[in-house]
Specification:
Elements: E1 2-7, H1 11-22, H2 24-31, E2 35-41, E3 55-56, H3 59-63, E4 68-73, H4 81-90, E5 94-97, H5 100-116, E6 121-122, H6 134-139, E7 146-152, H7 155-167, H8 171-180, H9 189-192, H10 195-209, E8 219-220, H11 228-236, E9 239-250, E10 253-264, E11 276-283, E12 287-294, H12 298-314, E13 338-346, H13 349-360, E14 364-366, E15 374-378, E16 382-383, H14 384-393, E17 397-403
Parallel strand pairs: 1-2, 1-4, 2-3, 4-5, 5-6, 8-10, 10-17
Antiparallel strand pairs: 7-9, 7-11, 9-10, 11-12, 13-15, 13-16, 13-17, 14-15
Helix pairs in contact: 1-12, 4-5, 5-10, 7-8
The protein binds L-homoserine (HSE).
């Protein structure tokens, strides 16, 4: 019997209990042993619920019970998750978590601790919810040098951008709707400002290159400045706007960023809509491969967590090698990152185009249906620093969005 303790009985934690109970037979067949949830830790009471008899309020009961093999954490946040993770691993238990904040900040330390104790620290659900991407990176894409990772890593923002694109609505209206539907948090800052996607691309990039990226070093821009007028231009150009978490290797350096991008239908991520996530990984031998599916939600996320439980149960007493050292991965300077930009300016093409081409070189001009008193253009490929200095001199500039 494999004994599991679940920390936190919120959306994901209750999903984990449900997956283990619904798929009891499948798990038993795959592991060759039965999985039982011995404890659920939560501060709240759940009278009358199926977990009433296994509910505990103190972590000590769990960590000091030698029968508990695997601790599942679905609480989120750094405290007390970090101390619970350390204590669990120090007691030789495996720790499976969906907590991207914990993984992005303490991944290398907790992996090392797990290795010292012949246990495992697994975090499949921390990126892409239910989509298998961490294990494929660790165990399948091992013959390749990873050249690029580009993902729609946040379901809430993808829902908002998809709805703005399809229905012509403005950001605030769609955010309110997303909150009412329970997709966006009451405090949606981590999603809409790109912080959630930033932690996720930091985790993926650290695993791809085996060294630690400090997520605070990643240039991060959210979607709060994207307007319904931007989508009118995007529609005119046959494009959509997506929030990307990206990293790529160029001239021996790794560049990483989170920002909204305008993409056309030649990009496989073009069709990733609503709350779904998609992650494109480019290998030097494999070329492109894409992971697609439910990036959030109770049962998809719980499914990924329980897949970690299965992996931990199958490797009881031995550590599955995951390479992510504490050594810092040096990031290339953001100012040297190159790409194209879509720019909107106030005024008329006749009046401003000469000045604009004088600054940016040749550009492609666009006029959106029903939008007057301004126009848009797409630049050629240029460095972030070059763009910034041209943008400073550009008269009447309203906004800019990166283009791929
Ligand atoms: N808030 C996250 C999202 C949850 O919207 O994708 C899953 O990490």
């Amino acid at each position: 019997m494999i004994h599991v303790a679940v920390l936190g009985y919120g959306t994901v934690g209750s999903g984990v209990v449900e997956v283990i109970s619904t798929n009891r037979e499948e798990l038993k067949n795959r592991i060759g042993d039965e999985v039982q949830v011995k404890y659920v830790l939560d501060l709240r009471e759940f009278p009358g619920s199926s977990i009433e008899k296994i509910l505990v309020h103190d972590f000590e009961t769990i960590v000091n019970d030698d029968e508990v093999d695997i601790v599942v954490e679905a609480m989120g946040g750094l405290n007390p998750a970090y101390s619970f993770a350390k204590a669990s691993l120090e007691h030789g238990k495996s720790y499976c978590t969906s907590n991207k904040e914990l993984v992005a900040k303490y991944g290398p330390e907790l992996l090392k601790l797990a290795e010292e104790k012949n246990s495992n620290f697994f975090f499949e659900a921390s990126v892409g919810g239910g989509i298998p991407v961490i294990r494929p990176l660790n165990e399948c894409l091992t013959a390749d040098k990873i050249l690029e990772i580009c993902g729609i890593l946040n379901g809430t923002t993808n829902y908002i951008l998809t709805k703005m694109s399809r229905e012509g609505l403005d950001f605030d209206t769609v955010l309110k709707e997303a909150q009412e539907l329970g997709y966006a948090e009451r405090n949606p800052e981590a999603d809409v400002e790109g912080y959630d996607a930033c932690r996720k691309i930091a985790i993926l990039t650290s695993l791809a290159y085996g060294k630690h990226i400090d997520f605070e070093d990643i240039y991060t821009e959210g979607i709060t400045k994207i307007t319904d007028v931007d989508f009118k231009y995007a529609a005119k150009m046959g494009r959509v706007i997506k929030l990307f978490g990206k990293s790529r290797q160029e001239n021996g350096k790794t560049y990483a960023m989170v920002a909204p991008f305008m993409i056309d239908e030649s990009n496989p991520l073009y069709s990733v809509n609503g709350v779904l996530n998609g992650i494109l990984v480019k290998g030097n031998m494999l070329g492109d491969t894409m992971f697609y599916g439910s990036g959030a939600g109770k049962l998809p996320t719980a499914s990924a967590v329980v897949s970690d439980v299965v992996e931990a149960a199958k490797h009881k007493g031995e550590t599955v090698r995951q390479i992510w050292s504490a050594q810092k991965l040096e990031l290339g300077e953001f100012k040297d990152y190159t790409g194209k930009f879509f720019v909107r300016v106030k005024g008329s093409e006749d009046e401003l185009l000469e000045e604009i081409t004088g600054l940016f070189g040749n550009v492609e001009v666009f006029h959106a249906d029903g939008v007057t008193g301004e126009f848009g253009f797409i630049t050629g490929s240029m460095k972030e620093s070059e763009f910034a200095s041209c943008a400073e001199k550009c008269r009447g500039m309203i906004t800019r969005i990166r283009v791929e």
